[in-house]
Target: FCRL4 protein
Amino acid sequence: AGAQPPLLTLDPPWTPLFKEQKVTLTCGPPGERVPTLWSINGRTSRSTSRLQFTLPSTGHYSFQCQRSRSEPSPPVKLSVSDDTWVLQAPVQPVLEGDELVLWCRGWWNVRPSSVSFFQNGELLRGPGGQDTLLLAPAQPHHSGRYHCTGRGYLSRFETKPNEVVVHELFSVPELSVEGPREPPEGSALTLACVTRGSPLRPHVALRHLFYRDGEVVAGPQGSPQYLLQALALPDSGSYACEARAEAAKVQKRSAPVTITVRRVPVAGVTLAAQPPGGQVAEGEGLVLSCTAGGGTRPLVFSWHREGQAQPLAQGPR
Model:
């Protein structure tokens, strides 16, 4: 297999762009200049890792690059418009926790006035003097169709809608129980906080927390597992886990899972006498001892004689 795919970046990093506008494409680290195979709408050419390209016509463009012995980069797609006014969104994928910037822009960088921003037809902000809209940190509910209105030159304008998608950084965690949900007392149980990362940003560091009845019992920790050793009855409760991408300030909690620790039934009860056999002369001492091979502690023993229901005594031994 080849090396990791390079990151393909565009400058300016927006979509849509304008017809005849120049873009600079960079394959990998900006400071490098290495032989690179470029693909633009499926047509390949060879150049260095930095390429300038003029957008010749309206429509949709797909860019990819591949360096020596690397996998091809993920495609970067943008659209090209011949409208006078557009609402621009980031050309790179936007994930939860990112800063989402939208730009109401005119041909040749003409600045509009009295700008309003809309999401799915509903007014978000405006009218006002700012031609950018910042949504941070980006959340899934920020996905939608955006457009802007304003005044430019001598008349008002309204842009075509631009579809914006905020991708999931990682899935809502699921609390996995590696063992029975009604384990016996004294046994061990492993809980795992299972999430799926996004292929758009695969190396996100997560921290994990585990809760019982709403209180933190483990974490924050890098490991997605929590081992409960030598379970006791107080370990019963409603468990949940939480995954956090602290750098992106994104956190998600699992649905609760009920764990009920079962009492171990009393077993292997034996009665012993000292001296053995329980034969003593009047006035001598007799010691009776009752032991149990298993059972949830603490145990309470009851002493009975000749089958009587009423105990002679009760106690821990």
The radius of gyration is 35 Å. The chain has a mean pLDDT of 88. Residues 21 and 86 are 14 Å apart (CA to CA).
